[in-house]
Design goal:
There is one protein chain. Helix 1 crosses helix 3, helix 1 packs parallel to helix 4 and helix 2 crosses helix 3. The protein has one domain. The longest helix is centred in the N-terminal third of the chain and has 14 residues. A four-stranded antiparallel sheet has the order 1-4-2-3. It contains four helices and four strands, in the order βαααβββα. By secondary structure, the chain is of the alpha+beta class.
Length: about 80
């Protein structure tokens, strides 16, 4: 698992390097990092640590700082993002 914020940073960097259409949309949103964090959570889902030390599917509560994503889901998200025109 990786924090959603770290995943968003990685995706933003990749999107800029590859000149993806979503990079332009994210930049125009005013907060590209938050744009990608929300987008990742909406497209592939996110997880929250539970009291037992495991993870539960996160509900959309707007608190991206405490959310996690599976590493494999980052590649899934990037494959999806590359198809957006």
């Amino acid at each position: 698992m990786e924090t959603l914020v770290d995943a968003a940073k990685s995706v933003l960097e990749t999107a800029r390097k590859e000149r993806m259409a979503l990079a332009v949309v994210a930049e125009r949103s005013g907060d590209a990092l938050a744009f990608f964090a929300r987008s990742i959570a909406n497209v592939v889902g996110a997880w929250r640590k539970n009291d037992a030390g495991g993870f539960d599917a996160a509900k959309d509560d707007g608190d991206v700082q405490s959310l996690y994503i599976r590493r494999g889901d980052i590649e899934s998200y990037l494959r999806w993002a590359r198809t957006v025109k």
